Amino acid sequence: xxxxxxxxxxxxxxxxxxxxxxxxxxxxxxxxxxxxxxxxxxxxxxxxxxxxxxxxxxxxxxxxxxxxxxxxxxxxxxxxxxxxxxxxxxxxxxxxxxxxxxxxxxxxxxxxxxxxxxxxxxxxxxxxxxxxxxxxxxxxxxxxxxxxxxxxxxxxxxxxxxxxxxxxxxxxxxxxxxxxxxxxxxxxxxxxxxxxxxxxxxxxxxxxxxxxxxxxxxxxxxxxxxxxxxxxxxxxxxxxxxxxxxxxxxxxxxxxxxxxxxxxxxxxxxxxxxxxxxxxxxxxxxxxxxxxxxxxxxxxxxxxxxxxxxxxxxxxxxxxxxxxxxxxxxxxxxxxxxxxxxxxxxxxxxxxxxxxxxxxxxxxxxxxxxxxxxxxxxxxxxxxxxxxxxxxxxxxxxxxxxxxxxxxxxxxxxxxxxxxxxxxxxxxxxxxxxxxxxxxxxxxxxxxxxxxxxxxxxxxxxxxxxxxxxxxxxxxxxxxxxxxxxxxxxxxxxxxxxxxxxxxxxxxxxxxxxxxxxxxxxxxxxxxxxxxxxxxxxxxxxxxxxxxxxxxxxxxxxxxxxxxxxxxxxxxxxxxxxxxxxxxxxxxxxxxxxxxxxxxxxxxxxxxxxxxxxxxxxxxxxxxxxxxxxxxxxxxxxxxxxxxxxxxxxxxxxxxxxxxxxxxxxxxxxxxxxxxxxxxxxxxxxxxxxxxxxxxxxxxxxxxxxxxxxxxxxxxxxxxxxxxxxxxxxxxxxxxxxxxxxxxxxxxxxxxxxxxxxx
Length: 759
Known about the structure:
mainly beta
């Protein structure tokens, strides 16, 4: 874990790597492979030390019988929720380490039961932990809780309906009260729930904080002087930030109204002040914002919007202006022997594009160097960063930071290297007005331990066949390889294991020289495609030293068109440089609601669009709701001339969600307005013969034709005009960042025609 301490002046005082288990197992012959995830931190007022809680996942090959270490070894897993204090030097106090939950076994594969923990010290000085828990036979998760005076743990959720995701919580707070308050979100209904704990017992039951059947996430909770406040993101309106007093229980109110908000944290300060910090992507930029506001004495009665730091606020786009001319081209279209309707088709579609403040793409990031077993290591000053093919090179500063700006829109291969480290290469795709951040974790070339370099996954990006969407039925098999430098002075007992989807496959080793081999393995593609996957490569050299490395790889659905026409051609799976394109659009549903009394019609639709380039890394989901009035009055003249007019319109909004490879989804929205008007005039044929000179010569033979029954007729002249306006984009009404970012278009025209009917 990476521990940072910041002083009262805001300057970093200390940053160190923390290993909660530097010596597990406690046998000298065994080797540790550790992973620490989802840390949280609090302060222990009893010991005056910070407390860190995390998931600790440990693995080691242990002898089946500890009394006979020479017998074959097998895998041993230890998963725990572990709390460890941090001393004044930033080092873990191992002797005071406490496992809130532990699961140790020697199975072939681990099952992680406890995840996403939080920690708090209550008014009695007890250390309390909460986490999301799921046993293998459970269909979903629940919330577990314990403290360091209990012999076991307790499930405090009434229902096991908690998602498996870090955005569910749970979070715990104590404040200056004898109570503990826990908050989390569920799967069913996406609710935010709160549970109170008093003297070691849950009280009051699970209380629902939001009555809206929407999707909540990223909850947090804080308490002071008996006042408890929870905050969460709610997708009722583009994932805005909501908050509510939970003690006393209040109504949820919208706190921040801007782009998608998430990763919210809240702490109490004083008796009624609460400080919020969160991440949102207003203006398309992922930024961190802070706001303080009172609760209790001054309850929420309105929507609050923060004032962004000026350096973080993009310049708003200029007001759009309309340019263009209207060109009307009449097109005559006869409809039958007895009727014709000439129409006029407008061809005017000017597009108004505001001029935003543009900036060229950039790439920045940090370089860390680490030894085997470390997760982060330390920042590497003086590392060399190469943009291959661009002729650009930078050197990291004392914080390990580098920056390339004013780049072109393209895909770059970026290589980081440093003294006594193994180089690492990553891919970065740049976009206009966007910064791409990379993190490099370089391994020290440690004597005596194997090292993997030059990872390859032919043919590069992997396209899985026969997949209609994000889920796939038929798994494809793909080849992976890694060059392994053994560093064992000619050892013979060497092996490498490739792992994807939790199943380890022994690699085939082809010697390159006395100290290196090419390791190859054929693995099944994942059953669910995430935008990013990792292949774990575990290397054991002849000296018994083990190193595990994670390599990034990408899987994408293969275009259906290519799959059906040419399923057996290997090159269609997407080798580097193949720039084919494919697109598809699917109307997921469209609902036309019944007219309401009787002038209002509402249409709801949802559409999926995706675009496949060589790496199939973009997707878009659009949802739209439109509604508007429509009325058609009729007026009948004494001469039986019927005049019908029509007027209609629609006004609605939509939400667009778009993702690109490994980045968080971006959210966009806008509104659309459509207006149309028209009229029809109907005149009986007999009357028309009297009104128009010469018309009777044509009409009379028609009416006197030898047919059974009466013949009646009428002529209609139809006409109308149409105007349509559309605005796509986002209007930001935050202080200091007013402006519209997007495009607009206008369409207009007229139409007319004539018709003769007989019956």
